[in-house]
What does this fold into?
Amino acid sequence: MSIPAATLPARARRRGRAGERPPGEPRRIAYLYVLPGLAVFVAFVLLPLVHSAWISLFAWDGITPGEWVALDNYEAVFTDPDLRAAFLHSLILLVFYSVIPIVIGLLLAAAMSRSRVRGLAAFRTILFLPQVIALVVVAVMWRMIYAPAGGLLNESLSLVGLGALTQNWLGDFDIALPAVGLIGTWVMYGLAMVLFTAGVQKIPQSLYDAARVDGAGPVREFFAVTLPGLRSEMAVALTLTTIAALRNFDLVYITTGGGPGGATSVPAFEVYERAFQSGEVGGASAVGVCLAAVIFLLAFGINRFADRAAR
Amino acid sequence: MIVRREQYFTYLLLGLFSLIALVPVVGILVTAVQAQGGLAAFGEPNGFHLENFADAWREGSFGAYLRSSVIVSVSVVGLSTLLSILAGYAFGMMRFRGEQLLFYLLLLGLMVPLEATIVPLYYDLRDLALTDTYWALILPQVGVSVAFGTFWMRAFFRSVPRSLVEAARLDGSSSWGTLWRVVLPLGKPAVLTMMVLVFMWTWNEFLLALVMVTDEELRTAPLGLAFFQGRNTTDFALLAAGSVIVATPVVVVYVFLQRHFIRGMLTGAVKG
It folds into this structure.
């Protein structure tokens, strides 16, 4: 949940550094206000995270007493071929969830920086729509599109005389992962477009005028003005899309169930499979902890990078 | 002339990608009213069968699923809004020992993926005999929502002019009274944004429900749809109708409050 929030810390850090006034008068009563929310947060987020790290040090099937194995479960994350494959698949999905949407968004930003657009609000409503539809519904929807018999994709291909290209999109060992990835692209590109269109409108026109006076063409203008001007939007887009790619559970569970033959298995799916289907609870926890660590590092790194570039 | 051409290119991009965003959505709406039993999705339209929604509602017991989702969502939104306002008020307007530490703890919590906590959550809640109750769906969701909500409300409270609070104080208003009567009335848009986001995240959550609930009565709408699809892989019309039923509540809220969705998910992270 709360994926967008992951981009917030950078902003907090920036604010904190500004050396602002103390936020208010010292008050003991503050603890009473903070307590209820903090209690729920600690009980249902923080303690489970710590508990997860503890469980990950055991070989435990969830029923009989666990056996202490220290870091063996973490070693497995790097040596177990299935787990390595799952993390590798995440990397490939990053291309579809992050890189392609951001490229599409930048393309639009580049075009918009050189023209005025009317009716942007309507486009924005439509482009953002995939973000609010439950991923389970998105997955069911795309299963119908990819369906080998009667699916929109194969039907359309046949209709335009490309029947030779029809596929069992989600059932083919080589194609299933990119097919799942494209669903992610569909969900994410609108977010990048909306983000960048808002950002590009905030870039002062004078910068473009200056660049044009200097004789910059559209390409130089893009790299010299538009791209640097979208730095903070870029950090947000990167954080949101990479976390969505890494946390991808719903889509994989519904569309392929990790198949065929593990071709679309991802870490989040492995956590579920191992903990609740195959009784490797300790191993599952280790995967979950690693996933959290990767997300922390990525979010921190991206914001750090954006912060430094901003100075 | 060049400018004109670039203008067309911009509209072309916007139009093309809006179309790509819409095709699956329109497709599923069309499929949802096709004759039942057909395997073809989006294929040759053959009528307008609104009764599919009634049939899906009955056969898929979506009535019960929506009821669960409403109970869970309303509880989560209500609880986390209240707790976030209180905590955000303290973080935004008061100074206390350990403030920094607690705040960074919450920030860290914003990023904890459910996948990293779901395993102990399940076993701990099972030991408390809370799995297969609404509490198992509500409490963990409140936990994550409060982290976001506190952060969100803190930003609002910091934007409130201090003079306002000081004036209220001089008038003898308690911190409690100042919060509800003086400050919060200014924060209605911020609170609404937080509420729609928490509502959307709660309504759409799947993994938590999948793990915590086996009782069919307690299934939330997305979980119900997943099971409905498992039983019903061939009848695209009914499956599409079920999907529409599950997605509609959030989409309707989105249509009316889209500025809150977009601002909450984007500018909340950008501005600053």
